[in-house]
């Protein structure tokens, strides 16, 4: 149960979707869902609806709205295909920390003005590259974000990256949960350790869990790395986090 919406933003108009539980009128606690690098597509609509069915209004924006509207990956194609991936990497390159910050402000303004969303604090969840978005949004809007989660997240704590979200976690006031893919080349153990240390040093209430045997992208049903058991576990962990915070 969803509706399309257009959100005015500093860099253009964000095409997005709001998901609600079936037969629910709202207002309900808000959850922002950022897709993985593949952008908007059916498996993420399904994921957003499953979260909404637990009693939330879920806002899922097109993170690539600066470059294209709607589904970015053509039907029948995969974001891993060699004729698709370069385009996605180009679009992702436009999502600088500054661009993310402008988008966060627009999304919060939407939440404050659309009838589906209740007042108060929100949750945010990201996948793959947007695990970093969730962490950054929690840091930049500490007074609004009660819960931030990331699954099979990428490049959260690269030592030589001054823009790494690991550098801003000291501002976070909400709860944080990360479900990491086992032996993920995009988030090796040294980065997980670096992030954990930064969160602990900052006194953030956080949980890190390694999904043993699960590969990067384990929640994406259209990916060869999809792992049904790990995906179910991710939904359970996210549901518990949101229940306890929102």
From TrEMBL:
UniProt keyword list: Hydrolase
Entry keyword Lyase: no
PANTHER family: CARBOXYMETHYLENEBUTENOLIDASE HOMOLOG, CARBOXYMETHYLENEBUTENOLIDASE-RELATED
Full protein name: Dienelactone hydrolase family protein
GO MF: hydrolase activity
Domain Dienelactone hydrolase: 14-244
Keyword Glycoprotein annotated: no
EC number: 3.1.-.-
Pfam family, one: DLH
